[in-house]
Amino acid sequence: MKRKISIYFLLAVTAYVHRTIHNFNLFSSDNKNNPDDERIGVMATRLYILFTIIGLIILSCYTLLLTHSHTYTIKGPSLSKFEDLHSMHSLTLNCPCSNFSMSHARIMSLYPRYHSICSSDYLKDYWLSYFGRVEINLDSVDFLTTDFRTSGQSFFKLITILCVTANETVENALKVFRSNRLVTMNALSRSQFHIETTRRLKQFQEQTIASFLGLIELIRSSIQTNQLAEETWTNVGPLSIYNNETSKWSFRFRPRDFYTNSCSCAVSDQCTRPVGFYLQETDNMLVPPNIIVPGLVLGCYAMDSLLLSTLECFYEKKCIKLLVDGYYFDVVDLVRPLDIRAVQIEPLRNEGSRFYPNTTINEIFSQLFIEDWINSSNFTAYYERCAPAQCTYTIQKRFDAGHMFTIMLGFYGGLSTILEIILPSLVKTSLQLWIKRKKPVQSDNPNVITTGKIMSLLFHSIK
């Protein structure tokens, strides 16, 4: 008996649920006695539920694929926090500087290390006294102007001048560079900072060298173009010409032709000949020296002689002894003894130099005698000066339950409002149009099909 009651109860509940679902109506008419309005409401309800489910499914799929942004703000980040943020969110991190301008001197240091010749003993007075010899008898010594004991004086004086000039040029340029400012609106990362400072340091080095060498080259070309006479007559020689018609002598200059490879100073500044020591009785510049100094050459002008020479002799003790011994060549007991410090002078050291001993002085000078630049950049000082008040970064997320729920809730609210407005009218209008398409029949026909019957049929057909 109890089992039958349970079955009847279950059947009753099932029938009630089925009837409730079957007659579920969100658009109930005020006139409950009009079956047509009730059926239209039920049909509109079913369409409403169908469209809502389809819309929510489509929106769910779209929301799952859609990315959205979350922006976070960190107040007063420390250097370590900033670097952590940059390592994780480098593409979206934005940290505006409180102080966006700072001098190079605050964050960068730059110092040149010069070639050893510029600080060597060869530029000191006791070595230069080699060329300021004091003869025992003023009339007993007479050297050619091409002899090293004469021409060497301009060689070392020019090196001194060029070293001092290079140093002053670099120091003046460094003062300007240190006063220049780095401007960054947003804090740079450590790698970006080092890239930027390295670029600026390299640009400074290149521009400083280029501007100075441009001026020197202009001076050299002006001298070459104007064919100025060298004091030692190395580029031109005096020539006296007697004019028989006027019975007068004229004084002219002619280019020297004692250089190798038939080179003429009138057309080239690359003419050279070896430098060395000559016997006193030699009065002809055309003959080669009796003792040649390795690496040193004589050019059209003193500047050419220096730049086309090398310092290889001054790296070797044997060659330096040749110079010391050459001081007395063919003039033993005719000149005062050489300063003992000059006799004991040490050769140049090549350790840590990027230039080979046989590198021309022109190549060394083209780098302003600079071996390398000692530079550093201080990222900590930069960040402390920048001092960003806050950092913001953005994270892109593809799925967020809260965001998805908010979108779907808003979508449902808008969709339900639209459907509630248009569905009842749409269903009613559709039914009326469907009725009009049917063939009209006479009202007295016993088989006449009423609107109620048609709606009943439609209603049952979409159950």
Q: Which characteristics define this entry?
A:
about 475 residues, alpha+beta, 2 domains, two-stranded antiparallel ribbon, two-stranded antiparallel sheet, 14 helices, 10 strands, about 50% helix
User: Runs with pLDDT <50, length 5+?
Assistant: 441-451
| Overall morphology | rod-shaped
The separation of the N and C termini measures: 35 Å
Order of helices and strands: HHEHEHEHHEHEEEEHHHHEHEHH
Number of helices: 14
DSSP summary, beta strand count:
10
Number of domains: 2
Q: Helical residue percent?
A: 40-55%
Q: What is the strand content? A: 5-15%
Strand order of the largest sheet: 1-10
Structural class: alpha+beta
Largest sheet: 2 strands, antiparallel
Radius of gyration: 51 Å
- Mean of pLDDT: 80
Structure commentary:
This protein is α+β, with helices and mostly antiparallel strands and 463 residues long. The chain has 2 domains: 26-66 and 398-461, no CATH class; 85-390, no CATH class. The protein is 48% helix and 14% strand. The chain contains 14 helices and 10 strands. The protein has helices spanning 2-22, 35-65, 79-89, 104-107, 125-128, 148-179, 190-226, 302-308, 317-326, 340-343, 361-365, 379-386, 401-436, 451-461; strands at 68-75, 101-103, 108-114, 181-183, 236-243, 248-255, 273-277, 291-298, 370-377, 390-397. The protein has a two-stranded antiparallel sheet. A two-stranded antiparallel ribbon has the order 2-4. A two-stranded antiparallel sheet has the order 3-9. A hairpin with a 4-residue loop joins strand 5 (236-243) and strand 6 (248-255). It starts with a helix and ends with a helix. The model is unreliable at 441-451 (pLDDT under 50).
